[in-house]
Write a structure and sequence with these properties.
By secondary structure, the chain is mainly β. 6% of the residues lie in helices and 63% in strands. The chain has one domain: Maltoporin, Chain A, CATH 2.40.170.20. The longest helix is centred in the first third of the chain and has 22 residues.
Amino acid sequence: MIAFRVWLLAGAALVTMTGPALAQQTPTKPAETKPAEAAKEEDTTVEDVVVSTSPSEVRASIDSTSYSLTNDLQASSGTLADALRNVPSVDVDPEGNVSLRGDPNVTILVDGRPSGMLTGDNRGQALLQLPASQYSRIEVMTNPSAAYSPEGGAVINLITKPNAPKPGQTTTGSIRANVSDRGRFNVGASGSFSKDKLTVSGDLGFRRDLAEQEGDRTRERLDPLTGDVLSTIRQTQRIIGDVDVFYGRFTGEYRLTDKLSFTGELRGNQIDNGGEGIETYETLDALGAPVSAYVRDGAFSFRGANRGVTGRLLQRYGEGHEWTNELRFDRITGHFSLASEYDYSLPVAPPLYDRLDNRNRLNLWGFTSSYTRPMPDDGKLRAGYELEVRDAAFDNGVRRGPTPTTLVVDPTVTNKFEVEQAVHALYGTYERPFGKFSAQVGLRLEYLERDLNQVTTGISDSTNDFSAYPTLHLGYQITDAQQLKASYSRRIVRPQPFLLNPFTTYQDPLNQRSGNPDLEPQETDAFELLWQLRAGQTFYQVTAYYRDTDGAFTDVTTDIGGGVLLTRPENLGSRRDLGVELVANGKLHETLRYNASLNLFRQEIDAAGLPGGRDRSGTVVSGRASLSWQPTPEDFIQLSGFWQGESLTAQGTREAGGMLNLGYRRKLSDKWAFQVTARDLLDDFGDVTDVETATYIDRNERQFGGRAVFIGLTYTFGASPKRPQDPQFDFSAPQAGN
């Protein structure tokens, strides 16, 4: 039913919008638009060793700030997680979970559009494995305008590298290769070709890395009345495996007329991860004497794939006056399997075997019709309709038996779950200056339809919801170099489909997880006050922010007997974050450049109504910094690192941690560059979580084999490409005075 109503409403909306768009004429005095500046994306190629050839390493608009990856050496050979960890406001934990100013509900876009692989429960794996080399900038929108979906506490937008040669050029591109120890390497090639009305471009690559993890976990069961320890369970884990990543993106643009063009894109990536793991389990009684012990020896594999296609038709009417229609489709699949053997030494017993298979599938359809138009008095209007349809399925199964060939299904942890969801949105923003003041107002209306089907139990449910999301952005130009900004937005985080599945899934003998069909969306009112100073290549930014969230998501873990913990998502009563963030980017010397940020905020959570939870508050400090030294025109050295402070959960804490990186790049010639990058110099990247309730205490320490040294060469041909202007996204072109 959703599918039929979706396309019927989409067609009606398109017809409704077409008339006004075509009827409008460009005003006699067009507005001074920022997109024209976006074509000046970079004056040098990404592989050059120049620290900064323009004052645009940091760009700011009325509702966003973007950061260049041009001189981030870790991004050139590392993953998306490596690149994001160097961006102010953003934290990425060892499992690929992204948070922005402490909020884990972050939407990730690519060129302003939803990304299939960066949506859903496979996102963490993708961020840890997909290369960052195909992106030129990362834009952070802590308070996005109504032109963007209100989904998520904030938005991170990954901006792909330019894909069209400069005027007079027909071909441009690069080939890159990096090798490390223990069989790790990555190779890639990108290029573009333009002739007459046709421009084609592509990016293709392969990456091999290692997946390593060591863990130690101690769980004490307590007497809830006396607090005495009843039993202790110790668990150790050692995992090692290989990760292979294939990725590709091919785009073609054909200019039908001077003002009408069609763009098509094919994209895809595949992650293959496999290896072995060994775990030990030991249970001690109240006196510390061992009562049981066994070893779990397993072989695991994961395959995740994303295939997508986009078609876009762009009609230009004049300077800054455009209408675009876009249809996109992504299919994302994932399959994790684990075959285990249990060897019991206390008490001695025959071995037991099991096989875990978790499969998921997501079909993601999207349609966008957006209209931009300059208005009188240097104003700008943006309006549009968006439709997103998600068709997701989850098939989780466990089989057990006395031998590998006699496994039978365990019905308690085997289930199939399906979700269909459609979100219709109408939005509009209007922006204009008033002397030194500027203002942007926006409103987004969204209608949600969602059908849940727990196939195993035969239980189904349907939800409909209509909501309005206002946004407001204000600016005041104090001087040519200084600016004040203030903003407000209302945001929502709807539960991902896998969070709604009530059935229990098996993780290991001591840990299980389930979703929560009663999980409500979380809603946030976000306020910001920001001061910026830009003087040449120096950029300072101070942001005071406050977020008031109702129903924030949190994981709650309960002891279901025998030392087994069940983790389930719940809604907090409320969560409040009040903080200040400092960003600085500039020169200490003609050859030495710095980039640093510090985030300090007070976190308060209301968890008293949750099992084992209580009201909690604390102060969190996170930061990052990099020093870039260019002793000669050919040499470039960079030291970078980040620190994520201790944070609160509903039942405990996540301890602080960080990483230190080093890189060196040598320009051998106009076409060749050599570089060395060292990731996780101290080889101590990991995390520690503590949970403390009246019935148990759980401490989980994990270390990830992150240290790696890559040696690489890059060959470029042609000239630095330019970026064709996207009608809906201005790639954070600097505003006047910025």
